[in-house]
Structures are given as structure tokens and as C-alpha cells.
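Supplementary Methods, section 5.1.

A reviewer requested that the exact input to the structure prediction be made available. We therefore reproduce it here, unchanged from the version used in the analyses.
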Amino acid sequence: MSARHAETSPASMTRPEARPFAQVDVFTRTATRGNPVAVVLDGEGLDEAQMAAFARWTNLSETTFVLPPTEQGAADGADYRLRIFTPAGELPFAGHPTLGSCHAWLQAGGASREDGVVVQECGVGLVRIRREGDGSRLTFAAPDPITETPLDADELEAVVAALGVPADAVLDHRLLDNGPGWRVLLLDSAERVAGISPDFTRLRVSHPDLSVGVAGLYPDGTPGPDGAAVEVRGFALGMGIPEDPVTGSLQAVVGQWLTGDGRLPGRYVAAQGAALGRAGRVHVARDAAGTVWVGGDSVTVVAGTVRL
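The structure derived from this sequence is encoded cell-by-cell as follows.
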């Protein structure tokens, strides 16, 4: 067979394309202690069905695809566009995929137009990501919540019952939607949050599309691990994720809510993931303009190519 014939044979024409790939652990400096995200660094030419199928195959909480910005996005300053998939479907925004994908893009040689700042285009619009210190820590500007209202009584009752916590342990509650819609309960202590053992079946039957977050403050003068001010957990059955190890979008709305009303200081560390054997640390800060920045360290664990 000639070289020319081999190049145009049906087998070679249907061979999947090798694309640069990384798997990044986010909100940690130690591999396997944070939340992994799979990043396909060249998603051009893949359709939505192919992206969704690969996300189901990785079976991680999120898988992302880096693309050139749209014409409008580029005009507005975007450095790249990101599509984010859970095993159950696409998200307009998510926190740890934003940081992990930016980390992988920079390690692959990506260069931002603005010094020290990367601009990501995604479903919610443009998200600014800052490089801090030696550049290993990235922080994103949390998108403004689309919705911020108390939960209705029936929904609150169902969530409390599924979590198995007494009603009087709930200090406050909100529907906080920044792309993923989070039903967030502020509980009476970090210890209470750590001890939750949810009835996932009950939650799935009563409200199958809910994503539920819980937060509990550590006592003044007795901080949590690594000085953490708050313990957070996230349960996202609607996204196909019973419990997420470390959740940037949830941490963002918790930070906006609880720094806004003064129950958390303007700068703090949140802990998440202990229930799953992880040790995620999320650095949250509210700036003078009221923007909440959510950040953490990332480490690349797998680098190579994927054939799609």
C-alpha cells in the first residue's frame, strides 16, 4: 500500500485526534487532596454530544474543554472560552474547573493579554482570574448571584429531613444561584457540618435536581484546620455528584452571602473535603468594591494527550 493510500484510507480518516490533556487537582498543593478536573486543552471540532460523552467517561465532577473565544468574547478581552460538563450535563460556570483549567492553560504556554490577569469566557460571561504571589495560586472574581432568596418552607423542610439535621440547627438559608443553583443552609457549627450523613435516596426522590450546600462557622478563637473560619460541604445530585470534594461555585456564594452580612470577615480560609478524605483549602476575600475573590492552589497530576 502506498503512503498516499494509507493517509486516505477509511481507518486513518476516522482515527481520533490526539489532543493535549491535563488532570489538575484544585484547592490543594498536595496531589490527591483537592478536587480534580479533567481539562481538554484543545476542544475545537468537538460537538456537545462528544464533550458530554467524555465527561461521563471521566466520571469526575467536572470535565472542561478549552476553545478560542467567540468574536464578541475576544472583543471584550477574553483570552479563551471554556465549556464545563458534569456527568449529567453542561454548566454555565463552576469554580474549581475555572481555576484548574486556567492553571493547565498557563502551564501549556497560554499567555494572557493583560499582565497578571486571565479573562475566561464561559456561559455566565467573562470571568477574571488573577495570578497571585509566585503565580501558583489563582483567584477568580465570583459572578454576581442571579438569585438570592430564602428557601420556601416545603423545600427547606425536605432538605433538612434529607440531611438529617434538627430544624433548630439551621440558623439561616438561601437559594443562591451563580450558574449552578445552590440551596445553602448555614448550620449552628462547623462540627455539625462535618457530622452530616445525608439520606441521598430521600433527597433524590423528593428533589432530584437540587444542589445543596451547608456551611458552619468555627468558634471565635478556635479556628479549624489551617486556620479555617468555616467548614463547607456540597451535595449536587442534580449534577450527578453525591458529594463534591471542594466546590468553587458554592464557596463563592457562601463568601458573598456571609461576608456581605458580616458573619464572616472580609478575608478568610474555608475548609472542604474532609468527609471524602480530602483537605481542600479555599481562600476568599472581599475587596473594597465588594467583589468576592475565590482562590486556591492547583497541581497538575496527569499530563499528556487524549484521543477524541
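The first helix runs from residue 3 to 7. These observations are discussed further in the main text.
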